[in-house]
Design goal:
Elements lengths: L3 E25 L10 E11 L4 E6 L5 E7 L3 E15 L12 H10 L3 H6 L13 H8 L8 H15 L1 E2 L10 H7 L1 E2 L1 H14 L4 E8 L15 E9 L6 E5 L4 E2 L4 E7 L2 H4 L2 E7 L3 E11 L11
Parallel strand pairs: 6-7
Antiparallel strand pairs: 1-4, 1-5, 1-13, 1-14, 2-5, 3-4, 8-9, 8-12, 9-10, 10-11
Helix pairs in contact: 3-6, 4-6, 5-6
Length: 306
């Protein structure tokens, strides 16, 4: 039986301003979505303080749910809290009998052999954060055999980036380009993901960016710290009509499992940044973010004696 874990997730974002903000307009992309067969969102609620004058919830082009809101009265702080409950089920696509090779998949996508292949084709093009270049393709070809199954090949690239790049939160920032991160061979999950997507697309393989959460486990014998989990990012690669999209995490060198909780998908980070907007006023801004990912403790089932 597939292994499943249900999580209660709290994502709290706080802004404090040195001067009053007269008006703010914001968009949130923080609601997890049900994405069969591995993710089911049981419930999600968003609270905003101060209460917005206007709020609208709508899907974007990629199927992510967006909360757009406006606060039109002076305020010196903004607090956004998103509470979700999500069930994640581990799948093992490597057991499938219908895994195409890299060469088969690139040809299917290029020629649009099925409707699914044709829809995936939009993810082989460059996007704002992800350029296409021959050096990305050559980097990938060093560890990806075109006659290998696409899943084995992508996992090899995932592990290669993990080994070749240094995780360093001081090396890059949110504005660092994919080219710069590739030259540095350093960065964070956003950079690792953008580099892998650039490599895959430069080979003609559809790949997209995934935002979500990663459950962190405390050291043995230590209690779990509340608010010590992380927002995270990884990649999703199209593996053909039968398998669809399969996710890999280059930061942790793995295919994702039950410790990963997807939230939004897009071409790159610019499509799915958790919160963006504009303010009038505010002066200096202080930002703090807390994320808590807690497995739900289900009640024990007592089986009566026969």
């Amino acid at each position: 039986m597939p292994r499943s874990v249900t999580y209660d997730i709290v994502h709290e974002t706080k802004y404090k301003y040195s001067e009053p903000v007269a008006v703010c307009l914001n968009q949130l992309r923080m609601r997890p979505q049900t994405r069969p067969p591995s993710v089911v969102c049981n419930q999600c609620s968003v609270t905003i303080e101060p209460m917005p004058a206007k709020i609208d919830m709508h899907p974007d082009y990629f199927g992510n749910v967006v909360d757009s809101f406006a606060i039109e009265s002076p305020h010196e702080s903004l607090v956004v809290k998103v509470n979700s409950q999500v069930q994640v089920t581990a799948i093992n696509p490597f057991e499938s009998q219908n895994i195409p090779t890299v060469a088969q998949l690139t040809n299917a996508v290029r020629t649009g052999q099925t409707q699914s292949d044709l829809l995936a084709k939009e993810y082989v093009f460059a996007s704002v954060r992800v350029p296409l270049a021959e050096h990305f393709a050559e980097y990938a070809k060093a560890v990806m055999n075109e006659d290998a199954s696409v899943l084995d090949a992508v996992l090899n690239l995932t592990k290669h980036i993990h080994q070749d790049f240094r995780y360093d939160s001081t090396a890059t920032d949110v504005a660092t380009t994919t080219e710069a991160a590739f030259e540095l061979k350093a960065g964070v999950c956003q950079d690792f993901s953008h580099v892998q997507i650039a490599c895959l697309r430069s080979l003609g393989l559809p790949a997209r960016y995934v935002s979500g959460y990663l459950r962190t486990l405390p050291p043995p014998g230590k209690p779990r710290l509340i608010g010590n989990d992380e927002s995270h990012a990884w990649i999703s690669v199209y593996a053909g009509e039968t398998l669809g999209w399969i996710d890999f995490d280059p930061t942790n060198a793995c295919q994702i499992g039950v410790d990963h909780i997807p939230v939004c998908v897009g071409r790159d980070y610019d499509d799915i940044s958790p919160m963006r907007g504009i303010v009038l006023g505010g002066g200096e801004t202080t930002l703090s973010v807390k994320v808590d990912v807690a497995p739900v403790e289900l009640p024990a089932v007592i089986i009566p004696p026969a």
